[in-house]
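SAMPLE LOG
Freezer: B-3
Tube label: C17
Construct: single chain, 161 aa
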Amino acid sequence: MAEKTIDVTLASITNTGTRSVSPYGGISAQSVRVKDEEQIFQSGFLYYTEAGKPIHESGVLSIKPGKSLTYNSTQRLTISHFDAEEVGGLNQMLMIYSSLQQHMVTIGGSNETYYFAGRKKIFFIDLEGFFDFPWSYRAQYEDDERTFEANYTVNLISSSG
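STRUCTURE (predicted):
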């Protein structure tokens, strides 16, 4: 069995749209089984806030268009990979998972809308050195669209096997 210990960091969130964003919910870094991503081995929040609460330690409630906030929130995970001859191997990968919502007010009402981003999956073989990547999030209710980009870094701390 081989293992890699990595640090996963939510570096910043940048509003890429034309309306303020105030996402609530969570973003987590997880080590999950490759063949069944619902089987989670390790998980830790990179971002978490509740509706109506600040989205940043500074007390900020929203991010204006074109602006960003620095988070530098890090989780350390160990990702395992088994040789083909090892029976019952549970090969793992890194997955960035999010469940975020946005409160949107429109004429005649309001709605809690989910941000769509999918799940970012990074396989064991790709966890090398230091790299960063952006991941886009989008929520829409009627004509109201909110978008932001989260910037992540992954740093290989150690590798064995």
